[in-house]
Amino acid sequence: MLKATLRSFFAHKGRLLLSALAVLLSVAFVSGSLIFSDTVSRTFDRLFASTAADVTVAPKKGINERLPTGVVRTLPVELADRIGSVDGVKATHIGAAVENITVVDDKNDPVGPTTGAPTIATNWNLTDRSPVKLTSGREPSGPGEALLDKDTADKKKVDIGDTLTVLARPGSFKVEVVGIATFTTTNPGAALVFLDTPTAQTKLLGRPGVATSISVDAADTVSDATLKRRIATELGDAYDLRTADEQAKSAAAQLGGFLDVIKWVMLGFAGVAVLVGIFLIVNTFSMLIAQRTRELGLLRALGADRRQVRRSVLTEAVLLGLVGSTLGLAAGIGLAAGLIELMGLLGMNLSAAEMVLGVATPVSAYAVGLGVTFVAAYLPARRAAKVSPMAALADAEVAGVGRPLKIRAIAGSVVGAAGAAALAGCVASERTATASSLLGLGVVLTLIATVVAGPLLVRPVIRVLGGAFPKVFGSVGRMSQRNALRNPRRTGATAAALMVGLALVGGLSIASASMTKSFDDQIDKTLGADFVVQNSNFMPFPQEITEKVKGVDSAGTVVRQRFAPLALSLPDGKRVESTASGYDPRLDEAAHITYASGDTTAALAPDSIAMDRRFATEHKVRVGSVLPAEFAGGQRARLTVGALTDMDQSGGPGMEGGLFMGLATAEKYLPGGQEAALYVNAKSGSDVQELRKGLETALDPYPQVQVRDQADYKELIRQQIAVMLYLVYALLGLAIVIAVLGVVNTLALSVVERTREIGLLRAIGLSRVQLRRMIRLESVVIAVFGALLGLALGMVWGVAVQQVLALEGMTAFAVPWGTLVAVVVGSVVVGLVAAVLPALRASRMNVLAAIAHE
């Protein structure tokens, strides 16, 4: 049996190749994501381990700092003397560093990275653990000098002697580049500007005598943990103390968020590849077994039992999985290398020579590859085992042609009803967490139900889709329609591969279109200012920018916005961490707020706070409630609820509850914050475009901020949502690639299966052109069937997703009809492309050899 299995496998290797490609893609994404994340983790683990001080003393971390406030937490430098007196301390080093500043050259072009990595300004304090060393020029001395890292200098063409402008929180200042520092470890992608310590304290932190951290070197005989305990005894619990190991783990955890995004995106691609690949493999093995009915019957007649036949088919699947997994692992290494190169273009200097191939990667690769093929081939293997020895004497098939679909109908109906109930529960739910859980369950169940019951829809739907074929294409059209109807199971399985991808695209396209429309409506409804001045990456900006805006002649009302992270203790016993916005008293001139109770005056009153009505109802809050609050800086307050809003939104990520207060209250409990946005109206009698021109002129030296009107703001939101759409389209592309492989495989095997039939058709006058047209039409009708099934399912999912979004305030519903129509047209193209090779092969058959084929 083993010899027979191996001969069968190698005899059909060409037919199994496309299935192996599906396995390859699945394994490549899994192994590539693991190799890339392991490589980045290992690289940065070495960086953090080599640069972290034995003990680091820093200010306490604040509450819910997801949204930046502009406040720089500091500690007095006198602590260094107290720490230095602790037994076991070898040396202390003062750190004065701030992130996400802006540095521009003499042409006013940003010097820092534009890919999301920070620009960091810090004091020059070279130690054995410094990540850089001075390689040209000299150290900075005095307020007008600075060093720049070599990677940034090379990329931005900055030389020693050039002048840069640093835009920091206390104000902007100019420096001359007097030296270049080169990274001795991996450059994480940031730009580094080094100043001398007094300059860093005054120009970056706003005053002398303060630091952002104190690094401590331990004596040779003292462990980091012991030294940390001794310092904690000296300082108490007012500061955050971390050993080198703890500091490295904390930095790695922050990096983990970035890695998780990449890993989950790639695993999402792997999941789609696995799911779609299963359909392809099931179809391939089902058709191969159908074509080998006589062969299997002969094996049974010679004494092979059912288990041996089933084991033979599963062995072929395992061999396919081994080949696909091995090639997929190799492709995954290439994919990881490509990602490493991409990170290099974005400024993160990783080395492909240091690529990490851990034990978990090949184990996962082969587990996925072998698992997919084994699971996919199991049902066809069971069917093969049921072949009777008498099948050796006849042209019998086990493909299920003509077998009733009663079991599928029952199973599909039961699972579909459960899925529909879950989606209905999602729509009816008033809690986001519950609705999201029911949505996930409903999506899985309805997908399974559609796959199971898909063959039931083949005959009625394809009769409609191909109804015009006989009239337009004559007998060729009629035969193509009947070929697609010949085996509903096969047609359903082939179309299912395309259906999965298009269902995802349909659902997520509706979700993104609904989000876009919701934001557009919300901007139209709430934004009352002529212009919004904001940082391009939503970071706070220095006070001098606010003064520049106020100094524009045509500027009238200028309303400032700041973020204030806080934790509220609510009447229902819960403690919610969120971020409130602080506004100037003239907020009504910049925004249109609908109140359920109270008004803007009450909302912005001293020690008052406003919140969304639904959030208040959920937590048993009403106007007049007094809520204990703790702010990010440790300040405590008791805030009175002055107003409840009814704005169909409860806030975005990190801003649960739609909280806002007066700017004076935010400054009282979180002093030193910076503006996150300015809402500007034109002065009475001034032209709006004149105001825009004045603002852009005044803010020309500050490239980090932008002036936006309503249309600009909407475009910004669309661009952010478009990132999700790009992922959707990439998933669509992957699904289409595998679906094309599935259709090609099905048609190719179908051509082999119908060799005699094709020979007879050619013998009675069917031309090569007509034969190719017949196969193309069959392919197109299958692809369109899968597309319509997927889009119908996707629209149901999209409606449910929109209901979940509505619970977060995004109540508008929109269907991107242009995208959906383009998908249907694209499915026709997919069908035509998939049919090219099978049609060409069929048309080149020798007529006499085809008629004589068994």
UniProtKB/TrEMBL annotation:
Residues 269-389, 731-847 form the ABC3 transporter permease C-terminal domain. Keywords: Cell membrane, Membrane, Transmembrane, Transmembrane helix. Its main location: membrane. It is a multi-pass membrane protein. The chain crosses the membrane at residues 264-290, 317-340, 360-381, 409-429, 435-458, 492-515, 723-752, 780-800, 820-840. Residues 17-232, 491-697 form the MacB-like periplasmic core domain. PANTHER family: ABC TRANSPORTER PERMEASE YTRF (PTHR30572:SF4), MEMBRANE COMPONENT OF TRANSPORTER-RELATED (PTHR30572). It comes from the Bacteria. This is ABC transporter permease. It is found in: Cell membrane. It holds the Pfam family MacB_PCD. Belongs to the ABC-4 integral membrane protein family.
